[in-house]
Amino acid sequence: MEELSLSKNVANLRKKKGVTQETLAEFIGVTKASVSKWETGQSMPDVLILPKLASFFDVSVDELLGYHPQLTKEKIRHFYQQWTTAFSEEPFEYVMEDCRKAVKQYYSCYPFLLQVVVLWLNHFMLTKDLEEQQAILSEAEALCTKIVEESTELSLCNNASLLKVAVMLQLGKPEEALSEIEEKADPYRFAQQSDTLLIQAYRAAGQTKKAVSYTQFSMFSHLINLVSSATHYLLIQIIQLPVIEETVNRIDAVIQAFNLTAVHPNSCAQFSYAAACAYAKHEKEEQVIKCLKQFVDLTLILIREEGRILNGDRYFDEITEISEVAELGVQQIRDTKIIRVGALSALENPIFQQIERSKIEKLKKRLASKTAA
What we know:
Serine Threonine Protein Phosphatase 5, Tetratricopeptide repeat
């Protein structure tokens, strides 16, 4: 729970309202000296005065006191999973209304606000109202800004800053996104070497278990980042068939070597889909169908796993445990129903219009089948 900040709030609200201490004192029925002591923290107003003070500033008593309830990590996960399910079963506007109410209630629980941004980024497209999409993204951007400006937790601020960039890109503001992230993501900054330094520190301190866990997670994270970067590289180099083929060959080898289709099927599914799009650009039907089959198979794994975004194996035998520490743990960021619908929609991409229709329909039928999952 964060400390109450009544004195600071009274001063800020009074200045925001543009009134003097004398005016406030006269309204409440106390002396100017009393108001001055409230604002400097030398004394506190009587509890019976609080509702009148709150009314004068047009805020709730909780807001006046600076009381903002904080949620546990488990409660944040519960909210997130509850809403991902609701988005697949209830009217979009009802779920958004519930989200917005919770945001107001827990407006200074910054880890919660961060996960609300993640939630909205992954579901805003479910409404067909483009103005509402823009409104949701703008709200998400504002939440990121609030976290960065008000939270004292560095890692939380860094994550909010990165999410803000993702929101900006969705809002069609690439120049602003570059301004926000270009310096922070500079690969030559010392901060980029923090993984290696932390691992060395754990070893030097004799904390072998932590060294093992963190090293595994670092390797795993870099592997997923490699696959993700390669996914974008395919689309950047989409007119260069030799580059596409070499990228697919190399990443396929990495995926196989580290069993990533089982450990993190989502990143592999995205890569397979990007490869299918790239091959379709060159009318390579055989390769397109092969990649789309992989995409469908991996999507069905995601659906069958009922919510898990990663699984350890005999090599990465520590990553599930360390991932549980994260706000959302290893749970999926979208409901399985939405994943299935999204994948079916992806197969309708116009880039595949040159592919034999019966082959696409066969893939759609397999994806839509409940028994296939």
